[in-house]
Amino acid sequence: MPQDARSGVAVSGVTRSGDFDQSFIITIAATDRTRKVWSQGSQIEDVQGADPNSFRATARGFAVTEGQEVKAYNGGVDVGIPYFCGHILEVEPTSKRKSDRVAYRFVATDYAWLLDQGALITGVYGGIGVNTLVRQLLASFAPAGFTAGYLPSSLGDIDSMQFTNESFTDAMTRIADRVEGGALWSCDYRKVISMWPTSEEDPHCMGSTETVVDAGAHREPTYRVDLTQVRTRVICEGGGSNTTSQVAMGATTIPV
Q1: Are 59 and 36 in contact (CB under 8 A)?
Q2: Is the pLDDT reported for residue 15 higher than 50?
Q3: SS3 category, 111
Q4: Which of 210, 228, 241, 244 has its CA 20 to 30 A from that of 31?
């Protein structure tokens, strides 16, 4: 790592490591603001299995307003790896002294929040594949710009399901809960909606490893990946039988 790197950031146990290189770009309202935002202790929070994700930062030297679009890419905006895309929903102007320049603390939320800005869902659907149902809801109720992504046939069918003035995200969660064995859904940074069985890996992460290399002097950037939403343990109560031998830690079967 270069001597001028200020922090090692990334959380251990994930594939990202080191600082961000100089091709890491942040735009606010389509204007490059990388140096004036990322150097102020910015934080991207990407929570697997839960939407929305967030971007928290402080802007100095320019004003930000609610509703502005924020994009953070490593390798060039719209062509590299998207680390965050969304809109600013909270702004807090601050200044220690009257003579100081105003700093704007802000929180941006990813595109998932936009899904609920469309029409509420009302209708009855039956005898339909889950993947077909999701595509129909996208076409009829989602705002413009959102498209269908990974929707495998293994999600199964739905015999009958009724919606009454439901938001799009609530409807998607209900559909996922109806899938046998459970399913997860997501809205990625390209406004692509996917749903997959819990037995499968997140399609946005399949077979990929992201490595970020430091080549600059950015101050205090952090990128937090949280896997607490992923449940990997189950507590069971047996029917009274004893195990025939000791069970090793991490074993997936119990001899009875």
Answers
A1: yes
A2: no
A3: helix
A4: 210
